[in-house]
Amino acid sequence: QVQLQESGPGLVKPSQTLSLTCTDSGGSITTNYYFWSWIRQPPGKGMEWMGAIGYDGSTYYSPSLKSHTSISRDTSKNQFSLQLTSVSPEDTAVYYCARGGGNWPFASWGQGTQVTVSS
Predict the structure, then answer these.
(1) 84-98 in b/e burial notation, b at 16+ Cβ within 10 A?
(2) Minimal CB count within 10 Å: which of 37, 78, 98, 119?
(3) What are the average pLDDT values for consecutive 10-residue runs of the chain, which has 119 residues?
(4) Among 98, 95, 86, which Cα is nearest to 115's?
C-alpha cells in the first residue's frame, strides 16, 4: 500500500518555481525521530537526495541545491512540500518523496511524479 503521494504540475517553464506536495497517509509527519525527504532522478542518471524536513520541522538540504530549494510542511494536512526556484531543463526528473528514520532513512517511498522543465 502506497502511503506517500506526490502531487504537482508535470510541466514547468524555465526560470519558474517548481512546487510539489507530498501527502503522508501512513502516519503523522510529527512522529518523533522521523524525517521526510525529496529525492529526484533525472533521465538516464542516478537518484539525487535534495533535502528533508524532520519531525520537529528542522530542514536539511543538499549543498548543491540549497541556494534554490525550500522544504516546508503543513501539519494540519499532514503534507510537506518542495519548492525549487529558477528551474532549468536540467531539473527535469522524476521527483519522489520518502519517509524514514534511524537506519532506514528512505523506508517508504511515493510512486514518483514526472516533472518536465520546458518552454
Answers:
(1) beebeeebbbbbbbb
(2) 119
(3) 92 98 94 96 97 97 96 97 98 97 91 97
(4) 95
